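Regression report. Comparing outputs from two consecutive submissions.

Submission 1:
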Amino acid sequence: MTPISFLDEPDLRRWRACPRLHWLHRQGAAPTGQPPRVGDSAEAAAALRASYAGAREIAAPRDDADWVRAVAQTQLALAELSARPDPEAALLGACLASDDGARCRIDVMQRGARGWRLWRLRLGTVADAPDVDALAWAAHVAARAGWRLQSVGLLLIDTDFLYPGLGCYAGLFREVDVGPMLGSRPVAEWLVALQRSAHGREPPMPLVAPCAADGGCAYADHCHAGEPAPAAVPPAQALEILGRERAEQLRLAGHRSVLDVPLTALPQPRLRRAARAVQQGAPVREPGVAALAAHWPRPWRFLRIETIGLAVPIWSGTRPYQILPFQWTLGEATADGGWTLQQHLAEGQSDPRTEVVQRLLAALPPGGTLFAYQAGFERNRLRELAQRVPAQAARLEALAAGLVDVFALGRAHAYHPDQAGSWSARALWRAVLPGLGAQALDEPGLRSPLQAYGLSLRADTAPERRAALRAVLARHGERQVRALQAYLAWLIEAG
């Protein structure tokens, strides 16, 4: 059997989701094999190596020729480790192929008293069904390749782990044995069905096809070719903008969109406001914010805090997924129409929290009013920082208590039909301030500030690339606070 005929765990995942998806994928370009998992994250790979000190590692195969090399290297390495006196010798990234046409890459194979312990790394705190499928697949391949297994399990992130620094990650991973669950996964039968499916006729679409899951399917146009386009209700007019349960009730009552819903059928002022905006095709802004604004002391300042939560902590004294502020942006609008901007973006060499506090408090003199969008987020971050820096706890707690929530103001007084039912900052800025581009990052491919900052922290990121990412974050922060100020001004205009 040639290497190109082998099936990988991603083939199984596609087939389990939709047999037609698997068939279409196999009819396309020749599969290049399972992408590397151990090296997906530099920090995760480093933590794995630190947790299995002295373990050998097989480089991730890049193509089918590489798979032949990797399988041979794995067989040799496992044989050598079996002969060692070390009872816990381990191999990272083991690549195995079975005699019935399956192959896989295993994050960790560790010697045990009665065979090999097989581990799959998941950068998360819980497992799901595809994890068990993948482990069943790996166990099948390892057994057919001639290796006796003692146990099969997952390495999950232990959120109680406190990183001591110096690359010491012992205890980061929590071992979960899933062996008792593998009996419900008939991998041998699946493999036969996978092979038949790949070489047979195009399967029909399943009754529940995951066409819209995980960003949609690349073959959706193929599967729906020739179908009449449904007369879809535009998202901004869909009954769902009034809430899913209410939408079902209204649909059962014979309503098709918000356009034909009488306002008297909506008990809450907020829902009536949204329906009125959709029906009249223009924003609704009720007076009230202007009266509140008259009591807000000047100057007005607008705060945006960005955070990161790393699965594998890199700063001593922090835990997995702990929410850590790394950037703040502060815009100030004065009564005479002036505007100033101050920012801080952590360098990343050490825990950023203490410096974030020092710089923020230095930029915030007493007096004035501080605004944030969905201020509960910034309020919680300020209170967490107060625990981190007790000497500044009183000032931070006072700032948290005094924050004005612009989200709450908008929800209580306005609705723009282009929001399409969403009150996220992204949806709101896009609806009310479409020309500002407040949510966009300057660089295509960057999905979020968290991703941009995470890339800037990588040891393999070139200095010029790191500088470019930091510039992207600075511009994004400025647009965020300007959007916050502009939206508040839009609300006040109604008065």
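Submission 2:
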Amino acid sequence: MLTLQHIAKAYRVGALPQPVLRDAELTLHAGEFTALVGPSGSGKSTLLNICGLIDRPDSGHIHWQGQDITHHNHAEWTQLRRNAIGFIFQGFNLIPVMTVWDNVAYPLWLTHTPQAEIDDAVAAVLQAVGLTDMARKRPDELSGGQRQRVAIARALVKRPNLIVADEPTASLDQDTALNVIQLLRELARSYGSAVVVATHDDRLLPFCDHLYRMDHGRILPVPNQINHVQTPIEETA
């Protein structure tokens, strides 16, 4: 789905550039769940921004479904991001004045999808995350787990090729976090989406197909993958 080759990125701090990514390489596959772990400042968020076509590397190459898009212009990146990439942010980033339904529909409005198609897509994904009955509520009427389910629905509604998630369980208690992340994993597989998650949360690791540790801007594969947990999803918290 997405391949990063020899990616380098630095930010200027005062007069000197501060390297954040060094010769980073990563491949993400459809239907697979990849986690990035590492301490703050190790480059996880910067790498997510590059995966999500929000930020450009200083050097290296980005391949999308086999095509080198490194030097595509801003408009081309924006169109690809809107059509094919879903985002799940730390803190949910839901629009408080909008209903659950409208928050989920928002990415489709940006792509000028016909209203009938929006209605069908939103209804289907809300059913998938178990929030059909919450469609007319606003985010402040929901629990943390329910708000994260709305964020998952919003990310999945356009059936993206790639989902980029930054600390998706940071504000959730253990039971809710496990239910939410298993739901994301199972829905991503059924939708055929690749998922890349940056996290400090070790509770996510049993759900990963691939695990990488970031260390001073480099991506290091972690051997001996933990066996996947196959527990039933409980009703939403």
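Expected: both submissions complete independently.
Actual: both completed, but the second showed a warning that disappeared on reload.
Relevant detail on submission 2: Residues 5 and 25 are 5 Å apart (CA to CA).
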